[in-house]
Amino acid sequence: MDADVPRYLRIQSAYSPSFGPDGSLLYLSDTTGVAQVWRVDSALEWQHQVTFYDESVSYASYSPERQEFAFGMDEGGDERTQIYLACDDGTDVRNLTRRPESKHLWGGWSNSGDRIAFTSNRRDERVFDVYVQGRSEDEAELVYESDGWLSVVDWSPCDSRLLLRESHSNFDQDLYILDVDSGERTRLTPEEEARWGSTDWEEDGVYLVTDHGADTTYLARVQPEEAGSPDDLDPVVLDDGGDWNVDGVNVEDDRVVYSRNVEGYTDLTFASVEDGFRKLGSPDVGDCVVGGTSWSDDGRLAVTLTARDDNADVHSLDYPDAAELTRWTDSATAGIESESFVSPEVVRYTSFDGLEIPALLSIPRHADVEPPYPVVVDVHGGPESQRRPSFSGLRQYLLKEGYALFEPNVRGSTGYGKEYARLDDVRNRMDSVKDLDAALDYLESRGEVDAERAAAYGGSYGGFMVLAALIESPDRWAAGVDVVGIANFVTFLENTGEWRRELREAEYGSLEEDREFLESISPVNNADRIRAPLLVMHGANDPRVPVDEAEQIVEKVEANDVPVEKLVFDDEGHGFSKLENRIEAYTRMVEFLDRYV
Fold first, then answer.
1. Could you report the per-residue pLDDT of 504-561, keeping only the tens digit for each?
2. Residues 532 and 470: beta-carbon distance below 8 Å
3. Confidence of residue 343 (pLDDT cuts 50, 70, 90)
């Protein structure tokens, strides 16, 4: 084992801040090897660990009124998250939901801090009903039975109503108002395909981001009182975002912060809603990606900042001045000098049909080898996702060892508008694979990169892209690494969690109408064309892409007498959350790449 692989994977991160009523801050940190809840009482003071589990905590949310918090945790990556309540010193932990066979989607605290709301598929695994529960371990109250994928996105200011989002696909949602006492649900948004996200219900309306009537998402405000005539809803546009998506908003009293996604980097803006809507300026947070935000009662904004050359940490900004950042956490870099970390260059290349594809290209700066460098083409999952320049210890290790990195946001990626994101839907699926072939053409034009030593690497949908690339261009790839990837679209859709099937069919095609096409593009049915060595890694508890997908492709490739390796973790799901498993997985990956690339 290369001793440096575990070291780079031990670089720590702190993220997901949540201010408490006394001004202390909760956040998640992977210091122990899995994400746990920590608390800090003021900037850079002693960090208190407050949860101590073998499983990763997925979120922590401070009560608005008491020194207690709610948090979520599943078992072995099965994503059947339970909701817990604890004092902010970690004592008096209570499991509020106690349904290990069901999923629970956190919906937030009431403004009074007396109740929480969530959705769950307890009644029917295929759908998510709405529940409200007090702070005790008493049974939650079912307040609305659903026939789809519902999530609670906010409470009304008076705590009598809930704002619900129903998701039909990642690009098609509806918003509803639910009266908690009567159970009456009223549509807020019109019946048309649009995104309605990052909602915040205040006294003067619901603040949100949407692409209703536009290609990119913009900042808007809507009035719940108009819910009786949703087809006439006319959002008040507060910032159209220009050519880029507005991707988040957080409002507290009259204070507003919202973000734009500009080439994957985050641009923040402060605003005030006192006497209208006024922009107050853009805090300078540098070239980074900003994570979740949280307001304190005295007007400070907590943010997570990360960049490709800077591991994630929690900072705060004073509203509205934001003259400088105040660091609250100081996550260790495992003794590795941060000056050695490499930032990417944003590039664009032309695909087969003339479409310009955005990508991140990173070239080694401190490697002990000379160019041209072998290259890892790293494909994100989703596919409705985007590779952004956040920190990754694994990627920095590869750069240190002399691998270039190329991270294309192929057609179908988010961050570049609705039209771009739809270009790979259903029958256009293989056009995105052609974008990877065009990526190799581009890399051949870069003198620092040896495109004949290119490895494809990706997870989830990105794993499908790896397998498809090795099939469509079998003589151009030196190796492939498939992590929790889709190998057979038919069995994937048949066996994925029942609550996910309709959402995934909206993107990939339906079993009823598109089965023949899905079979034709499934890697298991074309695996005889794979020539490059292949490493397949998976979690046995994966509820999204069941582990049988890995078993199928390994069996097919082995039959072709092609080198193939398999690694399955019994205590992981859709990805690897535990440090010891990440070390084993990515050490194996590095050894594989060194051997074949």
1. 888 898 898 999 999 999 999 999 999 999 999 999 999 999 999 999 999 999 999 9
2. yes
3. very high
Could you tell me if 486 and 549 are in contact, meaning their C-beta atoms sit under 8 angstroms apart? yes
Cβ atoms of residues 80 and 103 within 8 Å: yes
Helix H or strand E segment including 270: strand 265-272
Residues 523 and 384 in one domain: yes
Q: Name the percent of the chain in helix, strand, coil, to the closest 5.
A: 20, 35, 45
The DSSP symbol for 492 reads H
Structure tokens at 124: 């029917």
Q: Which residues, 6+ apart, have CB-to-CB distance to 538 below 8 Å?
A: 483, 484, 545, 547, 549, 550, 566, 567, 568, 569
Of the three residues 213, 247, 282, the one that is the final residue of a domain is: 282
User: What tokens were used for 340?
Assistant: 């050695």
Query: What is the domain extent for residue 248?
Result: 192-282
pTM above 0.85, yes or no: yes
Q: Record the tokens describing residue 104, joined without a space.
A: 């629970």
User: 400 and 252 share a domain?
Assistant: no
- Of 249, 267, 282, which one is at a domain's C-terminal end? 282
**Number of other residues whose CB lies within 10 A of the CB of residue 91:** 9
Question: 578: exposed, middle or buried (C-beta count within 10 Å: 0-12, 13-18, 19+)?
Answer: buried
Number of domains in the chain: 2
Percent pLDDT > 70 in the chain is 99
In three state form, how does the secondary structure of 408-430 look?
A: ECCCCCCCCCHHHHCCCCHHHHH
CATH assignment at residue 589: 3.40.50.1820
CB 286 within 8 A of CB 265: no
Rounded to 5°, the CA angle 13-16-22 comes to 115
Range 167-194 average pLDDT: 92
Asked whether the predicted pLDDT for residue 499 surpasses 80, the reply is no
If asked whether residues 277 and 349 sit together in one domain, one would say no
From the number of C-beta atoms within 10 Å of its C-beta (0-12, 13-18, 19+), residue 370 rates as exposed
Please state, in angstroms and as integers, the Cα–Cα distance from residue 278 to each residue in 252, 281, 585, following that order.
15, 9, 50
pLDDT at 1: 47
The amino acid at 408: P
pLDDT in tens, 96-105: 999 999 999 9
Taking CA atoms, 144 is separated from 67, 129, 140, 141, in Å, by 30, 6, 12, 9
Angle at the Cα of 7 from the Cα atoms of 292 and 465, rounded to 5 degrees: 60
Distance of CA 564 to the CA centre of its chain: 29
Q: pLDDT tens digit string along 228-260?
A: 678 778 899 999 999 999 999 999 999 999 999
Query: Would you state the pLDDT for residue 479?
Result: 98
First to last CA, the chain: 17
Whether 490 maps to a domain, the answer reads yes
Could you tell me the two tokens for 547? 């582990």
- Sign of dihedral through CA atoms 149, 153, 156, 159? positive
Q: Do both 420 and 520 map to the same domain?
A: yes
